[in-house]
Amino acid sequence: MSESKINELKSDIDELNLLLKQAKRKRVQDLLSVEVRKLETEWISLRDSAKSSTTPMDVSPIPTTSSVQEKRYQIKLNGYGWDQSDKYIKVFVTLKNVHSLPKEQVYCKLTDKSMELIVENLDNKDYILVINKLLEPINVGESHWKQKTDMVVIFLAKQNPMSKWSHMTEIERKFEDQKSNRFKNDDLDKKDPQDSIMSLMKNMYETGDDEMKRMISKAWYEGQQKKKDSTIDL
């Protein structure tokens, strides 16, 4: 495969990651994450193939079978998609040809607040996906995973089956809350103080008794008269 094809794939990945950062809808984010993972897997495979094709031939003596040890690369995964039902949080991880591996080479390490997916010796590479600080606790005993065509699906059983997760992790929710609070504060800073006063007086007028309404009406009338007098003086 030519160097231009590898560079083209890298550019596609960069552009998809940029779109992922700009995406606001969860389903769109999940679709983009899955596509990025597919292209990253293809890019890594092509890059490694290109490197091996340019490596000079090793003319050292061939070791015996017992002494041969294949060096495997470990690749940390970042992209995944997720969805939920009443009972499970479902995590989708795309890996080409993962369905061809024996079950003992694809497994998870789970705690009540974390998950770790491990895929061993897939095209001479080990893949690992770690998700810490899950939004809510999970039931480890009832959780499981399945290999499907080019994909692993992890079923994380909720401890509270009817709960709805807004985010996958505590960190994601905390980040979203901070961002929302920042936008609210910006809006308050931009709001005209006079508008706030008028809104307060309107609410007091609508909820107050007759005496309160007379006082507010009098204050508003006198304020209008002062404006007229100031205009005349000018």
Automatic annotation (TrEMBL):
The UniProt entry, under Gene3D superfamilies, shows: 2.60.40.790, UVR domain
Q: Which residues form the CS domain?
A: 75-169
Q: Please provide the record's keywords in A-Z order.
A: Acetylation, Cytoplasm, Nucleus, Phosphoprotein, Ubl conjugation pathway
A GO BP entry: heart development
One Gene Ontology cellular component term attached to this UniProt record is: nucleus
The principal localisation class reads cytoplasm
A Gene Ontology molecular-function term? ubiquitin protein ligase binding
Q: Which InterPro entries did the record assign?
A: CacyBP_N, Calcyclin-binding_UBL-bridge, CS_CacyBP, CS_dom, HSP20-like_chaperone, SGS_dom, Siah-Interact_N
Q: What does this protein do?
A: May be involved in calcium-dependent ubiquitination and subsequent proteasomal degradation of target proteins. Probably serves as a molecular bridge in ubiquitin E3 complexes. Participates in the ubiquitin-mediated degradation of beta-catenin (CTNNB1).
Q: Which PANTHER family does the UniProt entry name for this protein?
A: CALCYCLIN-BINDING PROTEIN, CALICYLIN BINDING PROTEIN
Name it.
Answer: Calcyclin-binding protein
